[in-house]
């Protein structure tokens, strides 16, 4: 049959459910007479089986198209759909990072419907014991991606990650505490953070306040009122819907760091990254890695806690609240109306004095009801 564009194609005329239909079998240039005859015989057999060959071919094309969805695309779509559930809408990239670093380089271009437990085992086996926690996160993220693919109607093996876990075996690695710098060595490290860059300023404020790196990295101007920084409940670790806000007293040294950082701020964030979003955990960690330090940024919370225990008589509740830890049972917390703000302020002033090379005298704090 001649086409409007001057070309020609093979056409099979059929009667399907009492209706005359025409079914294209391909261009004369691309399909030989033998191939056209074989195709015609195949589709005539479908008619004899009371199956509409045109609808059947469309169904086969749709099934084939499903298999073309590669894991990279599915992972990105799954990430987009989950952003609202993640801290800061996932802008720091921590949810996606295990996939990006350890799964997608090997499986990113593979159709998700073709991925099985052997593929996953071979991908994760190099880090399954050496980087156990990272491997566990990567496997969990992959499981979420596969469930996302299933929700899209793709023919995937929902048990592939669990089968891979069985093939990989029990992890030998045991979780270890994040290495911390001894509190006596903190002043020298603090003094070395002197070039006024975002990374140096962020690390300085992290040390001074004892907060976790997440709230610090997402610190906004509107969270600061005078000398108090209020961390929203939803920004805290293990957050729940009713997690209360947490007030952090800002001592003069901390306020000075904030003033230095203001000219570098962007989009309301005090510590933006070079490209977009906010500074990442990795940025601060890499600075310490380059200096061949075993300690990591999160470890400064331990440095502060050890300093409190070894050089002050701070009551337990005040010390734990300084780190943002929940103290006491639900009933006890309901009757306790204080967050020890002023006691914590005095404690952090003494810590700042130590960190900046000042007095190391013993401090006695009295807990007030």
UniProtKB/TrEMBL annotation:
Residue ranges annotated for the Tyr recombinase domain, each copy included:
176-348
Superkingdom is: Bacteria
Residues crossing the lipid bilayer are none
Record's Pfam families?
Arm-DNA-bind_3 (PF13356), Phage_int_M (PF22022), Phage_integrase (PF00589)
The molecular function terms of the Gene Ontology recorded here are:
DNA binding
InterPro entries linked to this entry: DNA_brk_join_enz, Integrase-like_cat_sf, Integrase_catalytic, Integrase_DNA-bd_sf, Integrase_DNA_bind_dom, Integrase_recombinase_N, Phage_int_M, Phage_Integrase
Its keywords, alphabetically, are: DNA integration, DNA recombination, DNA-binding
Which terms does the UniProt entry file under GO BP?
DNA integration; DNA recombination
Q: Which PANTHER family match?
A: PROPHAGE INTEGRASE (PTHR30629), PROPHAGE INTEGRASE INTS-RELATED (PTHR30629:SF2)
* Protein family per UniProt: Belongs to the 'phage' integrase family.
| Protein name, as recorded | Phage integrase family protein
* Source species: Shinella granuli
């Amino acid at each position: 049959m001649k086409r409007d564009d001057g070309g020609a194609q093979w056409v099979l005329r059929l009667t399907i459910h009492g209706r005359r239909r025409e079914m294209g079998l391909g261009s004369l240039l691309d399909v030989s007479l033998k191939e056209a005859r074989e195709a015609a015989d195949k589709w005539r057999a479908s008619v004899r089986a009371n199956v509409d060959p045109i609808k059947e071919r469309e169904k086969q094309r749709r099934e084939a198209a499903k298999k073309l969805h590669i894991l990279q695309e599915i992972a990105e779509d799954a990430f987009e759909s989950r952003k609202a559930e993640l801290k800061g809408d996932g802008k720091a990239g921590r949810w996606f990072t295990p996939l990006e670093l350890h799964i997608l380089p090997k499986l990113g271009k593979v159709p998700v419907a073709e991925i099985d437990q052997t593929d996953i085992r071979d991908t994760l086996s190099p880090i399954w014991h050496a980087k156990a926690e990272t491997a566990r996160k990567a496997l969990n993220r992959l499981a979420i991606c596969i469930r996302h693919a299933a929700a899209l109607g793709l023919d995937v093996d929902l048990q592939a990650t669990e089968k891979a876990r069985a093939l990989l075996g029990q992890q030998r690695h045991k979780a270890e505490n994040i290495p911390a710098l001894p509190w006596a060595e903190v002043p020298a490290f603090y003094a070395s953070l002197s070039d006024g860059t975002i990374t140096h300023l962020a690390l300085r404020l992290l040390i001074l306040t004892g907060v976790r790196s997440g709230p610090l990295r997402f610190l906004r101007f509107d969270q600061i009122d005078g000398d108090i920084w209020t961390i929203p409940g939803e920004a805290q670790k293990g957050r729940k819907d009713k997690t209360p806000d947490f007030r952090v007293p800002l001592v003069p040294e901390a306020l000075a760091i904030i003033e230095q950082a203001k000219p570098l701020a962007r989009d309301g964030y005090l510590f933006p990254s070079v490209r977009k979003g906010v500074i990442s955990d990795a940025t601060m960690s890499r600075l310490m890695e380059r200096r061949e330090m075993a300690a990591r940024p999160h470890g400064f919370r331990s440095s502060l806690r050890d300093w409190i225990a070894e050089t002050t008589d701070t009551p337990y509740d005040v010390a734990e609240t300084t780190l943002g830890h929940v103290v006491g049972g639900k009933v006890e917390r309901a009757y306790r109306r204080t967050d020890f703000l002023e006691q914590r302020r005095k404690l952090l002033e003494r810590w700042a004095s130590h960190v900046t090379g000042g007095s190391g005298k013993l401090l006695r704090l009295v807990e007030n009801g």
